[in-house]
Write a structure and sequence with these properties.
231 residues, alpha/beta, 9 strands, 26% helix, disordered N terminus, methyltransferase, ribosomal protein, protein-lysine N-methyltransferase activity, ribonucleoprotein, SAM-dependent_MTases_sf
């Protein structure tokens, strides 16, 4: 992802427990309709959130992507809301779940089971809170599923998982293996630089907000893709 975030110094900060992270999110983020998805409530960052206080929980020192609206997830969520049969009565994996918005929409549209795969420990707390705020249940795993065999699901929903070349090099073989195992794959992306377009087939396009272009108020025309037949 191309957005940059200013890091505030927080000397002497200590890692918080999962319960403490949940409390922090509730007390410091705003629960409001998701950008581009007014049907869904999400705990969302604002200028006074003080998210730097959660950095001690992040072993990779990555920005808090889960607290912002990224186009890839919004694209898939919008597509599912318009075509709920994609997930109805099916098992879904929300890959790189972030805020959990895609999995939440899948559950609201009738998915029988949703697993949100997310390695950011702060994000896993946010996913649970966001699911509760929307009246659904989403299972959360912090396992690096990219290093595992294809999961026992019917559809994989992957929003914004090609935001860097190293990650793309891991994600594409995983998704290809999943498709060969009979799992449907949907990818949402505003055509970021590392998206392997040659291996994909466009299904739909939407104009959605994208924090990756610097503001949640700016729209990006992005696509929902599946793997091409020879991908």
């Amino acid at each position: 992802m191309s957005g940059e975030h200013r890091r505030e110094d927080s000397p002497g900060s200590r890692a918080l427990s999962g319960a403490d992270v949940r409390t922090f999110i509730v007390e410091n983020l705003q629960l409001k309709p998701a950008s581009g998805l007014p049907e869904i409530l999400l705990y969302t960052a604002h200028p006074g959130s003080g998210l730097s206080r959660l950095r001690a929980n992040d072993t990779e020192d990555s920005p808090p992507y889960w607290a912002y609206a990224w186009a890839g997830g919004t694209l898939i969520a919008r597509h599912i809301l318009e075509h709920p049969d994609i997930v109805r009565d099916r098992r879904a994996l929300d890959l790189g779940a972030g805020s959990g918005v895609v999995g939440i929409v899948a559950r609201k549209c009738g998915a029988s089971r949703v697993i949100a795969a997310e390695i950011d420990r702060n994000a896993t707390s946010a996913i649970g809170l966001n699911a509760e705020a929307n009246g659904v249940t989403v299972e959360v795993t912090s396992t690096d599923v990219l290093s595992r065999a294809p999961p026992e699901v019917d559809v994989i929903l992957a929003g914004d998982v090609f935001y860097s070349a190293p990650l793309a090099a891991r994600v594409l073989p995983f998704l290809t293996a999943c498709r060969k195992a009979g799992i449907e794959v949907l990818i949402g992306d505003p055509r970021r630089r590392s998206l392997p377009l040659a291996a994909l087939m466009l299904i739909a396009e939407y104009a959605v907000p994208d924090f990756g272009v610097g503001s949640t108020d700016q729209a990006a025309i992005g696509g929902v893709f599946t793997l091409a037949a020879d991908g």
